[in-house]
Amino acid sequence: MVTLNPAEEEAEEYLHSKLEEAELWNPRLGVILGSGLGGSSPQIENILEFNFNEIPGLPPCKVPGQEGVLRFGSYGVITVMLQLGRLHYYQGLDMEQVTLPVKLMEKLGVKRIFMINTAGGLNPAYSRGDFMLIRDHINLMGVNPLRGACDAEGNPAFQELSNLYDQEAEDDLMQRSAISGWPLTEGVLVGVSGPSYETAAELRFMRLVGGDAVSMSIIPEAIAARFLGISVTGLSVITNTWDLRMPHAVSHNEVLKTAEETAPILKEVITAWLDRSTSL
Questions:
Q1: For the chain, percent helix, then strand, then coil, each to nearest 5?
Q2: Where does the record locate the signal sequence feature (predicted)?
Q3: CA dihedral defined by 4, 27, 84, 128, rounded to 10 degrees?
Q4: How many angstroms separate the CA atoms of 52 and 242, rounded?
Q5: Mind giving me the DSSP string for 244-275?
Q6: Which sign, positive or negative, has the C-alpha torsion 133, 136, 139, 143?
Q7: Domains of the chain (ranges, CATH numbers)
Q8: pLDDT for residue 217 is more than 90
Q9: Which helix (H) or strand (E) holds 226?
Q10: What is the pLDDT of residues 20-78, one digit of tens each?
Q11: Closest of 49, 50, 53, 72 to residue 62, by C-alpha
């Protein structure tokens, strides 16, 4: 089981008390938005919002384009929890810290999470601004968030991951995309630790072993969420594409620019996921 340390328990108690005061009961759905994607946040009411640095035990979010905000609100008759910006391993944090927002979501009652990040495209069929549903992943980060975790019987967390991402939810988004015209595709995400971008040889290797896109996030959060019994839908916004024969230089500003441009359509995708999830 995943237990919280005293500082993390303080964060849970703090959020519980604030939600009770605001009469926002038991958030069932969570959405995590990565680099530059805050403009895609869905429309909610009765908003209650916290900066990461207001919450005990939660590290600050110091990456440009990452707002570092937890936002709660009403979507119809249910409460949703939005995480705008995320924590990254490359910041020098450990995996307990990186996955703490997901653990807090589970403690507060979240059952389904839509995790969204930005990624570089390895698949030559992809274009800048495409959305890739994450059907599977390859973890090349060199670390696993379940290291040291135990199951209910006290055994090491030998978590089964062959069907980590919610196939039915992603199938539904693919069907809706055919009607709505979203630039939605599907593929395999490769996770690396960062913060440096990949060498030409590394990019060719990732494509050779089956990767369609590469990023520095989502995979630790997805593994932790699965261990906690949360359904995970994953999506990467393709903010740049690689010519594997002659990779070009890429910058974080380029990533943020593309993320901002895709916001209106991505908001439609997130809203469709929320509409389906509220009916389950």
A1: 35, 25, 40
A2: none
A3: 110
A4: 33
A5: TTSPPP--HHHHHHHHHHTHHHHHHHHHHHHH
A6: positive
A7: 6-278 (3.40.50.1580)
A8: yes
A9: helix 219-227
A10: 999 998 999 999 998 788 889 999 999 999 999 899 888 888 776 677 899 999 999 99
A11: 53
Angle in degrees, CA 267, 11, 219, rounded to 5: 50
Measure the CA–CA gap between 280 and 272, rounded to whole angstroms. 13
Please tell me the pTM assigned to this model: 0.94
Q: How far is CA 187 from CA 80, 175, 199, in A?
A: 27, 16, 21
Q: Hey, what amino acid is at 10? A: E
Encode pLDDT of 192-204 as tens digits: 999 998 888 999 9
**Closest by alpha carbon to 1, among 231, 254, 224?**
224
| DSSP line for 37-91 | -GGGPPP-EEEEEEEGGGSTTPPP--STT---EEEEEEETTEEEEEEES---GGG
CA dist 91 → 34, 197, 217 (Å): 15, 14, 12
- 163 CB burial (10 A radius; 0-12, 13-18, 19+): exposed
Long-range pairs for 57-62 at CB < 8 Å and ≥24 separation?
57/5, 57/7, 57/8, 57/10, 57/11, 57/100, 58/11, 58/100, 58/101, 58/104, 59/87, 59/91, 59/93, 59/97, 59/100, 61/85, 61/86, 61/87, 62/91
